[in-house]
UniProtKB/TrEMBL annotation:
Bias type Low complexity, positions: 10-22
Pfam families per record: Cob_adeno_trans (PF01923)
Annotated region described as Disordered, given as residue ranges: 1-22
Reaction(s) catalysed (UniProt annotation): 2 cob(II)alamin + AH2 + 2 ATP = 2 adenosylcob(III)alamin + 2 triphosphate + A + 2 H(+)
Superkingdom, taxonomy of origin: Bacteria
Protein name (record): Cobalamin adenosyltransferase
The keyword Nucleotide-binding belongs to this UniProt entry's keyword annotation: yes
Residue span, Cobalamin adenosyltransferase-like domain: 8-165
Tagged with keyword Transferase: yes
Family: Belongs to the Cob(I)alamin adenosyltransferase family.
MF GO annotations: corrinoid adenosyltransferase activity
Key words, A-Z: ATP-binding, Cobalamin biosynthesis, Nucleotide-binding, Transferase
Species: Rhodoferax saidenbachensis
Length: 193
């Protein structure tokens, strides 16, 4: 495959439009462009997360997710085209089951906090939810395949689970934990209220 980018500053977007993969031009404020931008932002946040220490299996999974998000962005940029396959959703289901199996059962809500890696995974989770909402909004106006919506929904769940995994990961051999919300209900159950 040849080099697809010949120049970055084309100035063709100076009028508030952008080109899609099918050579049509749309407003930069269109629902499709919002969805593409949210997916791109999510991929960038995952790239930032990959700068942190983590188990090698989680790292490999996140790199694969970045490739799939690039496929998703490509699919969104070419109306009617399919790049993200249903198998990608199944791969997230497998990863969810695998990582969830080793985590303790939640007793209460957790805060998006803990280690820097876990906190960044929570940022990825929230951006995935926003990207999912953008795809749903686009889907209300245009016909899309189910896979993009399903992938983002499952990915946000996985990022929650990976945040919990990353809160436990320590390079010194110790094990960390989640940061639990201090709710009145939990305090009453513990008898500390």
């Amino acid at each position: 495959m040849g080099n697809r980018l010949t120049q970055i500053a084309t100035r063709t977007g100076d009028n508030g439009t952008t080109g899609l993969g099918d050579n049509t031009r749309v407003s930069k404020d269109s629902l499709r462009v919002h969805a593409m931008g949210d997916v791109d932002e999510l991929n960038s946040h995952i790239g930032l997360l990959l700068c942190e220490p983590m188990p090698e299996g989680v790292r490999s999974l996140l790199v694969e997710i970045q490739h799939q998000l690039f496929n998703l962005g490509g699919e969104l940029s070419i109306p009617g085209y399919e790049l993200l396959k249903p198998e990608a959703v199944l791969a997230l289901d497998v990863a969810l089951a695998e990582h969830n199996e080793h985590l303790p059962r939640l007793q209460e809500f957790i805060l998006p906090a803990g280690t820097r890696a876990a906190s960044q995974a929570h940022v990825c989770r929230t951006v995935a939810r926003r990207a999912e909402r953008a795809v749903v909004a686009l889907e209300a106006q245009e016909t899309l395949k189910d896979t993009p919506r399903q992938y983002l929904n499952r990915l946000s769940d996985l990022m929650f689970v990976l945040a919990r995994v990353l809160n436990r990961y320590r390079t010194d051999g110790t094990v960390g934990d989640d940061v639990y919300w201090k709710s009145e209900r939990l305090a009453q159950a513990d008898g500390s209220a």
